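Why should sequence recovery work at all? Because a backbone constrains its sequence more than one might expect. Tight turns favour small or flexible residues, buried strands favour hydrophobic ones, and helices have their own preferences. The token representation captures these environments compactly. In the example below, the structure is given first.
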């Protein structure tokens, strides 16, 4: 009876070993597959293009003793500005009101004992901002000049951009892929291994920061023209490629 029990224990142990081996084998195979030899490289491509559109900020600010008076004065000036811009060919879709506000103006005086009087409203400021997309850059200086004459007294920031930069981005993207592929070829040849299939590819696209310029000072002579230099926009794409290394 003792011999039978010992044989049963040994058989069970052996059976357990075989069963465990059956579960371990797939796990090891999966780990081997995940540990495929790879090489990851990156390439950066860039392309430039002259801007074909400018975005400018025009602001009309008016002060008055009452909110109604300030609003009326502001609205009258902005109405003239809008009419003039449309008369110069700026489409409605390229005109957008931004940052409209009505703010009270306070006065607070010191008392003889060093304390302060309660603030008193002495007037109101109405600010009405307008974002304008100018698609004909030759008009830009004239638009700024005429807007200032019609009552724009703040703003003037200019950003140069492109309406449709897709072809330029594509050129930068292709250049980035070519650079990454060339880098992978150089590395694998130097290491004495063979480059395999593409395992993964991704990109990072850096939207160019618009070129910002300050408009001419509002106090300048009205018969002078605003000088404008548009420069160029640079679009950058970084591509990351992971290749398998053939054994």
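From this structural description, the recovered sequence reads:
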């Amino acid at each position: 009876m003792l011999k039978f029990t010992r044989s049963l224990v040994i058989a069970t142990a052996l059976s357990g070993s075989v069963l465990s081996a059956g579960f371990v084998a797939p796990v090891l195979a999966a780990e081997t597959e995940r540990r495929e030899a790879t090489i990851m490289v990156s390439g950066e491509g860039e392309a430039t293009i002259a801007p074909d559109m400018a975005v400018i900020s025009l602001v009309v600010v008016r002060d008055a003793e009452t909110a109604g008076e300030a609003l009326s004065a502001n609205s009258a000036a902005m109405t003239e500005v809008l009419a003039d811009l449309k008369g110069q060919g700026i489409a409605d879709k390229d005109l957008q009101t931004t940052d409209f506000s009505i703010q009270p103006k306070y006065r607070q005086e010191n008392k003889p004992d060093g304390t302060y009087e309660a603030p008193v409203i002495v007037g109101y400021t109405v600010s009405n901002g307008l974002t304008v997309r100018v698609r004909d850059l030759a008009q830009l200086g004239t638009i700024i000049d005429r807007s200032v004459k019609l009552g724009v007294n703040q703003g003037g920031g200019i950003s140069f951009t492109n309406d449709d930069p897709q072809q330029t981005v594509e050129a930068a993207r292709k250049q980035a892929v070519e650079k990454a592929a060339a880098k992978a070829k150089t590395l694998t040849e130097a290491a004495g291994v063979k480059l395999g299939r593409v395992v993964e590819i991704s990109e990072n696209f850096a939207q160019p920061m618009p070129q910002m310029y300050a408009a001419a000072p509002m106090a300048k002579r009205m018969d002078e023209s605003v000088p404008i230099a548009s420069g160029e926009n640079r679009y950058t794409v970084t591509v990351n490629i992971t290749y398998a290394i053939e054994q």
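A few observations help interpret the result. Helices lie at 2-34, 67-87, 140-149, 166-191.
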